[in-house]
Amino acid sequence: MRSIRTVKTAVNALRRNVMRAVLTTLGIIIGIAAVIAMMEIGQGSSLAIQQTIAGMGANNLSVRAGTASSGGISFGAGSVMTLTPQDAEAIAQNCPAVSNVAPVVRARTQVVYSNRNWVPMFIYGTTPNFIDVKDFQVVDGGMFTDRDVRNSSKVCVLGQTLVRELFGGASPIGKEIRLKNVGFRVIGVLGPKGANMMGFDQDDVVLAPWSTIKYRVVGSSVSETNQSSGSAGADSLTQVNTLNNLYPGSTALYPERSATQAADTPLPVRFTNVDEINVEAASSGKIDQAIDQISTLLRDRHRIRPGEPDDFSVRNMTEMVETLASTTTLMTNLLLGVALISLIVGGVGIMNIMLVSVTERTREIGLRMAVGARGADILRQFLVEAVMLCLAGGAMGILLGRGASYLVAALLHWPTATSLPAVIAAVSVSAVVGIVFGFYPAWKASRLDPIEALRFE
Questions:
Q1: pTM exceeds 0.70 for this model
Q2: Backbone torsions φ then ψ of 326, nearest 5 degrees
């Protein structure tokens, strides 16, 4: 009952001068509003970064071929052929921290349909697991199968940009497009993904079996080192891939050899390489474990001695995520620091007004003490008034901050996200500011002499 009576007394005291109470809390309102807005904008930016990374393929690792050098000149990553489809199969079978693996052969050439043509940003020869590794969705038709990869089938799946540029948005399922004069039947369409973190259009993509791209489109020989080095343009219209004529469909070229013939005349194994191997770790917490397992496995398969450098490299996407997340967190913390300064300024303002209030109500304080009020009661009354001022300012600040966050999202199209911890922190900080900056005026009021207070003019 005493607490309720104290709160009612504080409310009545504040209602005597509403305008002054509102102006007193202005600093708290601005500070809390800034905290809420900054927290929601910062959290929205973090979520946007996470969604962008997830769109590129969550928990992704990229295994690249090694670097060749001669006479002190380095030719860059992927300049030597060190990765094979068998490496990808070995990673999938022997690395428990890996959930999906997809070897990739890249190409760059013109895609033609009827009287339209387009040079896509990405032409990937891969396996069906690629859509799981890169988090693609097939929204029309279906994905090619492992059987298509083994048979080098001339089928493909298109991204939304290809569908728009070549087919005007109509369904391309069953239609035939041509890559370097090789006909491909469209069997599926990928869902939209938009641009990645580097600004590349992820919908500008063609997926096909890696064996088809390597042997029918790129037509590379063992001596070539980079599958993506082929140029796009008018040459692709006039060039005819001779391997396409050599290996039409899945027709066997030679009769199957018996075991005796194979033992008598062994044939050299033809080396087949891929440009890179895309890997998806089982979870974000197993990325480091997956890197260790992949590195150990590939060094063993490539017979690399201890102390010798790797002939491959593993790129970790989480390093980029952590860098961007730390940058966003740093900026958010800096802005929060500015907002906290506003809260301190608001608290000083409340302290000043409370001191003025104590001076104005000196006779009232003396009268209450004369009729039996103790110093602790006076201290509690003024402290409750200060805390109520700060909590009211905090509530208005939360509403103002939410409004500012909504306007930023609506007008500037910046990502924002509601932050419940920020609201809880704002209420807590308001109460703490009220207690800290209201204690001195309340203590000063509780220390007044009743006789001197009643004589105060």
A1: no
A2: -65, -35
